[in-house]
Amino acid sequence: MTGVQTKSVSPDEAGMRLDRWFKTHFPAVRHGELEKFLRKGQVRVAGGRVKANRRLEVGEEIRIPPLHERAETLKPVTRYDADDAAALKKMILFEDDSIMALNKPFGVAVQGGAKTKHHIDGMLASLEKDGVRPRLVHRLDKDTGGLLLLAKTRQAAQRLGDAFKGHDVEKTYWALTVGSPRPHEGTISLPIAKRMVRIEGGDVERVVPAEGEDAKKAITDYQTLEDAGGRVTFLAMRPVTGRTHQLRVHATAIGCPVVGDGKYGGAAAHLEGVSNKLHLFCRSMTFPHPKTRRNTTLTAPLSGHMAETWKFFSFDQEAVCDWPDDLR
Prior knowledge:
Layout: E1 5-8, H1 18-25, H2 31-39, E2 44-45, E3 61-64, H3 69-73, H4 82-91, E4 92-95, E5 99-104, H5 120-123, E6 135-136, E7 145-151, H6 154-165, E8 170-178, E9 185-189, E10 192-199, E11 202-209, E12 219-227, E13 232-239, H7 246-253, H8 262-265, E14 280-288, E15 295-299, H9 304-313
Parallel strand pairs: 7-14
Antiparallel strand pairs: 1-3, 2-3, 4-5, 5-7, 6-7, 8-13, 8-14, 9-12, 10-11, 12-13, 14-15
């Protein structure tokens, strides 16, 4: 058993519910145990009895009663990794006291999974300072490169999260597609859903154009910036909705699969002479800054295999996409 502890609420934790604070600091303490501590007055805030939903204020002292050793030993452990820190610092495009923006390389996962042990979320532990580390507020697919926005404080994470949910973030992706869309610019409004589809070797789950109650509205604006004689197109895409694999499914649906997207474009998505990796890149974002509330635009320079492909076709890597207000 540990003895009685006292911890102060940090500036980054202001406004956090007490139960969420406990989950962050002592994840092995079950909610039922916390409620029991609160009923008995063993957990107190600023010297007084409180409820689990109590919002915390900066500098308040939280009394923690003696805990079982498992509650201590299962606390999150931060391990500084010099290689992770160096790799992340090379990715940084912009940073202030509220946000950080990375140029995520192709092939690097944003979050972990059963078969993914190395990812951006895990690497961020190496940037922890004074108990605070940058936090994810959205994600990019592993095979997609480009701009990844992070929050450096809890308040910034909440405000950016609200902005993404409220569709107040405008994202522009660059893609290389096979063929040339007709018309050259427009809007794709095509509901999509996960379905089991048959491919060579058996049935697999895929996101496909669909109808029915489980189909979700999916809208994408697109604009042709350059093409190579109709063979391939340098396409700008703006997701109005944020569905899984939306851009890739919509590109294939209009007959112009993203180059390298064998999952949705099949053999037609592979192009001789260029990399078979996915050619999809988050180029820019415009969003309300979580601190100033002013619209802020950040842009990522094209990188990796897509930069090489752009050189191969002599496409303009500094091209500007001007989305018309009346596109939809």
